[in-house]
Amino acid sequence: EEEKSSEKRKAPWGRALATASPDRGGLTSAFPPARGSRGKMEEGKTYPQDGVLAYLETLEAQAHELALKQQEEEQQEKKLNRLKARVQELRARRDELRAKVELQEKKLVDKGVVTDPAQPSPQTVLEWKIKSIKAMLQIFHLTGISGKPTKQGVCFCISTAYEGTYLASYYLDILTKPEVRIQRHSVPVFIPLEQIAKKYLQTDLRRFLSVLWEHLNAYAGRRYQAEQLEERFSEHIEGTLQKNSLCNLLVFSYNVSRNGQSFPFTVRLLYGDLCGSLPTEATISCTPGAPASLAETAAAHSDAFRRLALHRAFRSLVDAKQSQ
Amino acid sequence: MDEIIAEYIRRTVLKIPRDEIMAVLQKWGFLSEAQLQTINFRQTKESISHSVAQLCEENSADVKQAAVLDIICNHMYPNKRVWSVYQMNKTGEETDFFDFADFKKKFKRRIQSALKNVTISFREYEDNAIWIRIAWGTPYTKANQYKTSYVVYHSQTPYVFISASVLKSNLPLLCQALVVASNYHDIREMELRSHCLNSLKDIVFKRFSQNFQTYYPRQERSLPAENVDLRITNENKNEKERIQRLNLEVFGDGPQPKLDFAQYKLETMFKSDPKLDVLEKKEPFRCLVKFSSPHLLESLKSLAPAGLADAPLSPLLTCIPQKARNYFKIRERKSFLPESFVSP
């Protein structure tokens, strides 16, 4: 009884208290109880207040999300820089130790004595061996093609990446007896796996894996670029980005302004090489009544699309547009 | 505006759950926001559908818009229909770029060259899925909007998902048009059918969880919190762990695709004690075994842990997603083959 009445007393102050406490990471946590108990107190009047509070809440949540996103990005950058610095550090240390070892060896050779260094315990040796094997396996996985022997053959893992970002991994269970064949796999159905297998699987397993790796990586790269374009430049693109399953034909439109008027450019990117992640053709078309000077701009844009990754090419166009 | 179309739109709206009607109409985009605001969603669905039909009449909706509304409804609730999977084949090796405009043109042309009275609508979705709706007529009557087939196709894949429901006689024409439009050579029906469209896609696109052995990334699976009461000991712990391990190997650790049934048609000889001699003629005993479930694969996965079946399960049951089929024909085991013969 006492608690309930004190809660009721707190409710009208709840909002004021919330604004005064910045360390709570946003006001959203403070709102629900205030609203709930307010509802209990004033049953008839909840509706309009819910409207205003709900709106403020959503604005608050949006701002919070944006701030979180920004924070995340900053943190990732910081982490990357930290790791880079650490790599440098470790390399320097390794070189240092190498130099030391060489120096020691030279000294020992000069002295003519080989001293017996303190033997580490078998436990620590084992732990170190396990650690280095795990690190080796991790490195293999990062190279893009790794495998593990199974009872009847090998299970290969092909990991894809584009410009430093690791993307999805795909697996193949390969049997070796009575002949080399694929038992099962998780390769997407639009990758021409059967064709590649027909050509290389029986004769040259290494080539088979390498060609498949190229196809998968190129596909992952193309899809990543298309997704980046949609995510980062959605407000610059008119309508939606049209693509097909292999992401080797992309069509989208954006506006270019000239002399105060805006003209729509429609881009058609064709990636003729399935193992490539840059378009082989970039056709830009505009409405028939467009001024001739736009043809030059179109050519420049087309060139950019063919040379740079899609999202970077688009960023350069946007920057050029804004500087105009 | 055609009364038939108004009625069709009204009936389509009736099929939508009341809470979703607003969202669907907004997605449709045919009625303006102002018009949508005038609809009172607290009435009965019957009245709501009449209000919507009224507004559509004011805007003079035509067959095309009604068709789009129907596609949107079916895309939202695909599990109300039964979908069959078809596989296309081609022998050429050229890379196909798949031009959507080209596909639409070829498809329409092929169907309309054989049958003029059809309504064909296309809609493309985010995940590269193309939805095609065909309302069939006859050479002498207009297209009947209630006799429809739906096709879902993902570009550059050899699989097509068809929900034909009525008029099986139009199926060959539909298949032909698909083959021509997508640059393949032929098409055959797979033995795979279910209500859940996404699960069918998961199975043929190999998106379901398969357990592949890898060194890395190390699957550090956290064991479920054991009952910490030390007075309780699990006598069958080894057996339980063995079953878990086998289950994991076979089913993987992700969610299973959702199938409604698996059907096994037996054409084997009845083996009995010769003294009983049930059958006078030595004919194969025909028998049909059908497993039905709201979620067949999950229930198969939980059979062994629940103690209802021995692990490992029969490969006839566990090969379903791998072989991408839920219709099987089991014939007599040939004497020189060590495994039982499961025919395609």
TrEMBL record, chain A:
Keywords: Centromere, Chromosome, Coiled coil, Nucleus. GO terms for cellular component: Mis6-Sim4 complex; nucleus. Its main location: nucleus. Belongs to the CENP-O/MCM21 family. Residues 1-10 have a biased composition (Basic and acidic residues). InterPro entries: CENP-O. It is found in: Chromosome, Centromere; Nucleus. Residues 56-107 form a coiled coil. It comes from the Eukaryota. It comes from Alectura lathami. Residues 1-46 are annotated as: Disordered. The keyword Coiled coil applies. CDD domains: DRWD-C_CENP-O, DRWD-N_CENP-O. It holds the Pfam family CENP-O. This is Centromere protein O.
From TrEMBL, chain B:
Keywords: Centromere, Chromosome, Nucleus. GO terms for biological process: CENP-A containing chromatin assembly; chromosome segregation. The keyword Protease does not apply. It is found in: Chromosome, Centromere; Nucleus. Belongs to the CENP-N/CHL4 family. InterPro entries: CENP-NAC/CAD_complex, Chl4/mis15/CENP-N. This is CENPN protein. One of its GO terms (cellular component) is chromosome, centromeric region. Its main location: nucleus. It comes from Alectura lathami.
